[in-house]
Every structure is written in C-alpha cells, then in structure tokens.
Amino acid sequence: MSTANAIAAPSATDPLVRTTIERRDVGPRDVLIEIRYAGICHSDIHTVRGEWGEVPYPLTVGHEIAGQVTEVGAEVTKHAVGDRVGVGCMVNSCRECENCKAGQEQYCLRGNTQTYAGIDRDGSVTQGGYSTHVVVDEDFVLRLPESIPYEKVAPLLCAGITTYSPLSHWNAGPGRKVAVVGMGGLGHVAVKIAVAMGAEVTVLSQTLSKKDDGLAFGAREYHATKDAATFEALKNSFDLIINTVSAPIDMAAYLGLLRLDGTLVSVGAPPQPLPVPVFALFGNRRSFAGSSIGGIAETQEMLDFCAERGIAPEVEVIDAGAVNEAYERVLKSDVRYRFVIDINSLR
Ligand code: NAP
Ligand code: ZN
Ligand code: ZN
User: Fold this and answer.
1) For a Cys staple, 108 with which of 25, 28, 93, 256, CB 3.0–4.6 Å?
2) What is the C-alpha to C-alpha distance for residues 247 and 244, in angstroms, rounded to an integer?
3) Structure confidence by residue, pLDDT tens digits, 24-43
4) 3-state secondary structure of 64
5) Which residues are paired to 181 by β-bridges?
6) CA atoms of 19 and 34, how far apart (whole Å)
7) How far is CA 64 from CA 73, 211, 300, in A?
8) Count of CA atoms in the C-beta half-sphere (13 A) of 73
9) Peptide bond into 164 cis (omega under 30)
C-alpha cells in the first residue's frame, strides 16, 4: 500500500477537505500514475452531494485524470515509465460478458468498476483523481496524445468520450443538423467534436451570454432556451439533439425540435426522472435515448481524433484549495468551460 495526498468529501453537506488515501500495491498488470491534473465533472458534484444515491464517505472523486507513469507491474505491456496517460470513469470490468467483448465495457453486464465509489477487485472502495497518484489496471489506462497539454486533455477522459460516443453512434456528420443543449463542460466539447465531424451545429443555452464562444467553437447558430420563441422557430429542425443539462428539461419542448426520425440523446444525468409525453415521440417518429461514457477503445479513438483535429477543451486551472468554490460556480453555470485541478498543489 502507498499513501496519496487527496481531497475528499466527508459527507453530502460538508465542504471537501484535504486528506490522505491508500493506494494498492502495483500488481503485475497495474500501472502507477503520478497525477498532474484532474478535471471537475458535474457528476463529481451529483455524487458527493448524495444526489444519485448512497455514497461511501469519505470519498475522493475525480474521473478526468491525466498524468505520467512512474512504475509498471512485471506483466505490463501497454504502458512504460514516463508515458503520458489518462484514466476516465471506469477502472475495470468483467471482460467476459457480451458487452465487454464488444468493446463496450461501460455497459458491462456485471457492472463496470467506477473510478470512484466503486468496489475494487480487493474489495476496497475506489477513490478518484483529486489525488496525487493512482494505481490502475493497464487495460483501463489511455495513451495521451503529445500535442494536447495535460491540463487540457484531462476533461476529454469524461466530457470528451461522453459526447464523442453518441455523436459517433448517431452519425453526426456532413448534412446532419445537431443541437447541443447546455454549453458547460460536456456541452462545449460536444460542440467542438460535432463541428469537427462535419455536422451543422446549433447551441441551445439558457441565455445568449456565451454566444460569441459558441460561434467561435464552430456552431452555426446559438439560441436562448429562456426565450419561448426559440422552440417555435426551431420546430422540426434537428436530426440529433445531445442534452448535456444537469437538471430536468421540458422533454416535450425539446422533442418537438426533432425532424423525421430524429433522436434526442440525454447524457445529462439529473437525479430526477425526465418524463416523456409519448405523443411528443409520435410526431416525426422521434426517439429518446441515453448514453453512458464510452468504451476503452472508443476513448482512445476519441483522444486521437481530438489530437488530429486540434480539438481541446477550454479550461480554468485551479489549486486544490479552490475546489469548493469551483463547485459553487459549476452549480451556477459559471464555468468557462471546465475547472481542472493542478494536482501539484496537493503535493
Ligand atoms: P456543467 O458543466 O455544469 O454543464 C451543464 C450545463 O447545463 C450548464 O453549463 C448549463 O448550460 C446547463 N444547465 C445547468 N442547469 C440548468 C437548468 N436548470 N436548466 C437548463 N440548463 C441548465 O456539467 P457537465 O460536467 O457538463 O455535466 C452535465 C451533465 O452530464 C451532468 O448531469 C453530469 O452528471 C452528466 N454526465 C453524464 C455522463 C454520462 O456518461 N452520461 C458523463 C459525464 C457527465 P448553459 O449555461 O449553456 O445553459
Ligand atoms: Zn464525468
Ligand atoms: Zn462485462
């Protein structure tokens, strides 16, 4: 065992505090990673505040991890000491079920092992990336492209793959009209990736306050959802809508924006249900779907795609001491566009 400096949530209501956590010894197929930067995902906030259910406190969250390999187990072949690597939302899966065999480990039928608040193979609770180092099975460690700096590549490990996967699955590309709802951490990356895939992208944000940024990211149009006229003007418009909102949205209103055979995919994960009026699906033979992160091979594909296309998240780097304040700003949609913790501030 080794000890890592970390930030942990003591309860659903207390602020996060500095602490230490234990990391397992480096096993034959493990990689020890010295973490450089860790992104703050809204899922971290839903989790530590207990919005998604029971939490094994104290808990260290963080599943957008970028760092460098400092030790490898005797049987490791995919990574070497000194490599730039990343870890996303899962650190293991059964590897035997049909979904794992199809490279869709995120949908492991026995449940993948989440990077934090999961049960590790030694029975301990997994602890996330707001910490100085982590030990992970080599198969769940990604190679980071040289061209994207650590602090900017970190958010791709969750925000990047979570939006790339549905955009790719539902064929965002030339001739397809894609709307992105909510331009926060996931949303702004979704805009950049969908534009790079060749789709015609529209941002649907609460207000027009980030319009210049959205257009700079490549969106053709940008509309305010607080303005009821938006829903009238854009009726029957989109082939694909990616909903990244962390709170419930008016499903009937958004489904009405889909054209024939269009799909609304929710990656946003509010704790409350999203009630779907069935008649909103009948018109235009619409679909409502969900999507969870992406598989390991697809995550590598996304990292390489972003490097090739020169795509990187917009980040605001903070010290560990500013995490609680950053959480408050995320909750107010006051984020441009991902907070990333400089883990050196924990050393
Ligand atoms: P975020 O940075 O807070 O972005 C969410 C955006 O949604 C905000 O920036 C805001 O955009 C909009 N929004 C927030 N509250 C709203 C409200 N009450 N009504 C309408 N719009 C609102 O969060 P994130 O890190 O991108 O995560 C977004 C959601 O995805 C979270 O629920 C998270 O748990 C979930 N998630 C899911 C997966 C998955 O695998 N499916 C993976 C990662 C995250 P505007 O200011 O532009 O309106
Ligand atoms: Zn996340
Ligand atoms: Zn499996």
Assistant:
1) 93
2) 9
3) 999 999 999 999 999 999 99
4) coil
5) 204, 243
6) 17
7) 23, 26, 14
8) 15
9) no
pLDDT in tens, 108-149: 999 999 999 999 878 999 999 999 999 999 999 999 999 999
Distance, CA of 214 to CA of 63 (rounded, Å): 25
Separation of 42 CA from ligand 1 center, angstroms? 7
Place of tokens 């990656």: 267
Residues in the ligand 1 pocket, defined by CB under 6 Å: 41-43, 46, 158, 162, 182-187, 205-206, 244-247, 267-270, 291-293, 330, 333, 335
For residue 268, which ligand has an atom nearest its CA? 1
CA distance 320 to 316: 13
User: What does each of the 347 residues of the chain score in pLDDT, given as a tens digit?
Assistant: 999 999 999 999 999 999 999 999 999 999 999 999 999 999 999 999 999 999 999 999 999 999 999 999 999 999 999 999 999 999 999 999 999 999 999 999 999 999 999 998 789 999 999 999 999 999 999 999 999 999 999 999 999 999 999 999 999 999 999 999 999 999 999 999 999 999 999 999 999 999 999 999 999 999 999 999 999 999 999 999 999 999 999 999 999 999 999 999 999 999 999 999 999 999 999 999 999 999 999 999 999 999 999 999 999 999 999 999 999 999 999 999 999 999 999 99
Residue located nearest, by CA, to atom 46 of ligand 1: 333
**Residue 258, beta-bridge partner list:** 238
Residue 246 CA, closest ligand 1 atom number: 32
pLDDT at 180: 99
255: Cα separation from own chain's centroid: 23
pLDDT of residue 121: 78
**Atom 38 of ligand 1, nearest CA residue:** 267
Ligand 3 centre to CA of 134 (Å) is 23
Ligand 2 centre distance from Cα of residue 43 (Å)? 5
Q: Pick from 190, 200, 183: which is nearest to 163 by CA?
A: 190
Ligand 3 center–CA 105 separation, angstroms:
6
Task: Give the torsion sign (CA, 115, 117, 118, 123).
Answer: positive
Q: Give pTM, 2 decimals.
A: 0.98
